[in-house]
């Protein structure tokens, strides 16, 4: 029996023949059909959850010892396969507990991925790369530092902040959270002080049990520093700086490992993070908060395509932790799940809805003004009344936010003579014109070229931009406001925040600081600036071209548009005292539209999310769409569209031939090209699978996995396939 090479001299030499079977989750290469833990031998029994190094092919990799299968202790190895021994144990790291193993196992099962892949991806990358000695040194250093710090009372460093007096609505919400089990949907207007409710509930959870841990999730990395500051201010004086850690992909591997270990050992009482944090090992988890729960960023878009929000609810139930989902514009799924009981629906939803309709202080929600673009001068980007309103605000020293969800200067360049357009040679998409460095860039594959001097097709030198993006908007607005003077007797300043201006580390923080300090008068930006930020001096928000999403083929587009506009409106007029100082001009949200009569805008004008949601849910119920049905997508990528579709057709035929379980309750749509059909020279097709029953869909998908793997061998032109359960974009 061969023992794989162990490069850790601190491990005891193997003297007795290894005699205990272990099931170890390891990350097998993508698309191998191995989805269960692999079996290894060990000379001693090892507890499930223990981190081990094991040989895999010619490599040695990290693995997690898994629970033995119920059906016996001796694996059924294929003929000719010699069992191998584990290489070593990662000393000093306590085993991952059963609830963490159940969470990752559920994720793998539900999202149709291999267990090892999910389990290993849920661990900090450094854990995979460090040798056992390096790991031991890390842990030693940490414990030494902790001892040195032991005598220092953190309260001496941080003064205890004065307690905040909760508003009536906040108090009512916090009392209900204490009294009931949840899960809770905290439906609170923008600026209603949801964060304070989270802070209060966190405090209660930590006080109730000296070991309790809480997990707080936000959708975007750029919202974590803000949140971290508030949590540190509140909790560091009581529990010390080390009690609050962050977890997101913007951190270095070393930082991530440090946070992960702190959560795993229980030293961290509060973990703040993005979607990945849902997998943090937190043995004493008592509360999970998901802020802006409607946000699409909670859905992972590669590997296991999990929804961190849905997993948070699952995890909360499993680990008996309370769960608070918070939003001013909940996802329709969560809204529906929190409906109250009625005569034909005596049980109602499984979440408890908590309502906070008022803003903090005397602050009011902005007035929504719809500008009918059909009545405005032709070709105007900014309608005269909007421009006038922005000018007046700036002249009074107030700030404005202009929203356009498209970056670059223009979405496409074109030639009026021959009709040439700046198409990406590798994708079925236009290359976007970026004036700042005179490039054409594909936002799908990244392909970048210099702007041609003349039309590549007919030689005409007069090629021009078509449509507009944030870069052009910023330029035009600066031009339009060039003679506007602020109360500080300086010219108005226009700045832009989008993915292009914030690539450098720290750039976003710097730009936001300039807005907060009042250096910027008008901020042009994408959805990046529309949510979460607590701007104090913005009194006008304008959406200049929001109509596109009204007619999208994606049934979730109106939901996303409504949320985006309502969140953007939520950035205006958050500080009642400031508005009063300025003379009491009410804050405003301007919408330039060609469809002012559209029902979505009617709801928006009334800040009436429930009306909007009721309409959308009625449409979805009539059409049998989520949340009244459950969906999955199978996508195939191939060299040609025919090959991609042929694979999808074949796998649905195989499913029918095999009469797979669940098939009776599942509808398989025919394959279609994806909305952006070709990216980086790869053709993409997808197929929708729908069922009225989540269980039937799950059964079917589980049985289908082996069919997909097997059929793949017959389709050499297929590059990859993947399954997306509960897809967010269709
Ligand atoms: N009870 C309170 N007393 C005084 N100020 C408060 C109170 N609660 C919250 N605030 C302040 O009100 C402002 C808005 O609160 P917060 O940012 O939590 O709103 P929100 O509900 O999260 O809004 P959004 O959904 O727009 O992010 C913040 O500046 C916060 O400090
Ligand atoms: Zn491209």
TrEMBL record:
GO cellular component: primosome complex
One of the protein's GO biological processes: DNA replication, synthesis of primer
Gene3D superfamilies: P-loop containing nucleotide triphosphate hydrolases, PriA, 3(prime) DNA-binding domain
Cofactor note: Binds 2 zinc ions per subunit.
Entry keyword Nucleotide-binding: yes
Residues reported in the UniProt entry to bind Zn(2+) 2: 424, 427, 442, 445
Top enzyme class: isomerase
Coiled-coil features, chain-numbered ranges: none
Keywords of this entry: ATP-binding, DNA replication, DNA-binding, Helicase, Hydrolase, Isomerase, Metal-binding, Nucleotide-binding, Primosome, Zinc
EC number: 5.6.2.4
The organism's place on the tree of life at top rank: Bacteria
Gene Ontology molecular-function annotations: 3'-5' DNA helicase activity; ATP binding; DNA binding; hydrolase activity; zinc ion binding
Cofactor: Zn(2+)
Pfam families the UniProt entry points to: DEAD, Helicase_C, PriA_3primeBD, PriA_C, Zn_ribbon_PriA
Domain Helicase ATP-binding: 175-348
SMART domains: DEXDc, HELICc
Keyword Membrane on entry: no
Binding site for Zn(2+) 1: 415, 418, 455, 458
Catalysis: reaction(s): Couples ATP hydrolysis with the unwinding of duplex DNA by translocating in the 3'-5' direction; ATP + H2O = ADP + phosphate + H(+)
Family as reported in the entry's similarity comment: Belongs to the helicase family. PriA subfamily.
Subunit and interaction comment: Component of the replication restart primosome.
Reported function: Initiates the restart of stalled replication forks, which reloads the replicative helicase on sites other than the origin of replication. Recognizes and binds to abandoned replication forks and remodels them to uncover a helicase loading site. Promotes assembly of the primosome at these replication forks.
Protein name in UniProt: Replication restart protein PriA
Gene: priA
């Amino acid at each position: 029996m061969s023992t794989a090479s162990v490069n850790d001299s601190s491990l005891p030499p193997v003297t007795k023949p290894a005699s205990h079977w272990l099931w170890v989750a390891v990350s097998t290469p993508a698309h191998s059909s191995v989805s269960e833990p692999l079996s290894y031998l060990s000379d001693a029994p090892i507890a499930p959850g223990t981190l081990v190094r094991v040989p895999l092919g010619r490599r040695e990799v990290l693995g997690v010892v898994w629970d033995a299968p119920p059906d016996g202790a001796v694996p059924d190895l294929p003929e000719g396969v010699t069992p191998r021994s584990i290489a070593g144990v990662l000393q000093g790291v306590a085993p991952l507990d059963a609830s963490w193993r159940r969470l990752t196992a559920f994720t793998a099962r539900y999202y149709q991925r291999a267990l090892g892949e999910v389990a290993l991806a849920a661990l900090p990358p450094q854990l995979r790369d460090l040798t056992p000695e390096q790991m031991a040194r890390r842990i030693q250093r940490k414990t030494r530092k902790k001892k040195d710090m032991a005598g220092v009372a953190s309260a001496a460093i941080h003064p205890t902040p004065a307690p905040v007096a909760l508003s009536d609505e906040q108090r009512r919400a916090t009392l209900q959270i204490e009294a009931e089990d949840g899960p809770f949907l905290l439906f609170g207007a923008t600026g209603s002080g949801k964060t304070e409710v989270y802070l209060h509930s966190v405090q209660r959870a930590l006080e109730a049990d000296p070991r309790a841990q809480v997990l707080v999730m936000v959708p975007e990395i750029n919202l974590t520093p803000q949140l971290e500051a508030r949590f540190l201010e509140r909790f560091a004086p009581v529990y010390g700086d080390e009690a609050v850690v962050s977890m997101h992909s913007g951190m270095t591997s070393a930082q991530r490992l440090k946070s992960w270990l702190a959560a795993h050992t229980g030293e961290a009482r509060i973990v703040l993070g993005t979607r990945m944090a849902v997998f943090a090992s937190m043995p004493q988890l008592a509360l999970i908060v998901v802020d802006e729960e409607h946000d699409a960023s909670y859905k992972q878009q590669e590997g296991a395509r999990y929804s961190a929000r849905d997993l948070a609810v699952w995890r909360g139930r499993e680990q008996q932790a309370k769960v608070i989902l918070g939003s001013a514009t909940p996802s329709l799924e969560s809204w529906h799940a929190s409906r109250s009981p009625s005569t034909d629906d005596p049980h109602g939803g499984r979440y408890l809805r908590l309502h906070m309709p008022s803003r903090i202080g005397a602050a009011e929600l902005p007035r929504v003004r719809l500008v009918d673009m059909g009545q405005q001068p032709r070709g105007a980007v900014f309608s005269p009344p909007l421009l006038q309103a922005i000018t007046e605000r700036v002249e009074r020293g107030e700030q404005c936010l202009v929203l356009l969800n498209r970056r670059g200067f223009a979405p496409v360049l074109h030639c009026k003579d021959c009709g040439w357009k700046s198409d990406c040679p590798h994708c079925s998409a236009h290359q976007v014109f970026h004036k700042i460095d005179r490039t054409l860039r594909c936002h799908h594959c990244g392909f970048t070229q210099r702007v041609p001097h003349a039309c590549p097709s007919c030689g005409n030198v007069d090629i021009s931009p078509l449509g507009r993006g944030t870069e052009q908007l910023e330029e035009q607005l600066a031009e339009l406001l060039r003679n506007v003077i602020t109360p500080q007797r300086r010219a108005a300043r226009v700045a832009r925040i989008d993915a292009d201006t914030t690539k450098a580390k720290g750039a976003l923080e710097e730009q936001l600081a300039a807005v907060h300090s009042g250096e910027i008068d008008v901020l042009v930006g994408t959805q990046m600036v529309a949510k979460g930020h607590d701007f104090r001096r913005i009194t006008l928000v304008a959406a200049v071209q929001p109509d596109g999403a009204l007619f999208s083929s994606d049934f979730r587009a109106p939901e996303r548009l409504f949320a985006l506009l309502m969140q953007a409106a939520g950035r205006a007029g958050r500080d009642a005292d400031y508005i009063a100082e300025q003379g009491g001009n009410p804050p405003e949200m301007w919408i330039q539209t060609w469809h002012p009569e559209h029902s979505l805008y009617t709801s928006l004008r009334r800040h009436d999310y429930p009306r909007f949601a009721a309409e959308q849910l009625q449409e979805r119920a009539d059409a049998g769409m989520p949340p009244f049905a459950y969906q999955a997508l199978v996508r195939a990528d191939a060299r040609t569209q025919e090959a991609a579709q042929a694979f999808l057709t074949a796998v649905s035929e195989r499913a029918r031939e095999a009469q797979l379980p669940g098939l009776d309750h599942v509808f398989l749509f025919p394959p279609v090209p994806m909305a952006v059909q070709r990216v980086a020279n790869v053709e993409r097709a997808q197929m929708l699978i729908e069922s009225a029953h989540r269980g039937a869909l799950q059964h079917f998908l589980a049985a289908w996995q082996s069919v997909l793997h097997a059929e793949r061998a017959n389709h050499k032109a297929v590059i990859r396939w993947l399954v997306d359960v509960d897809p967010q974009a269709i």
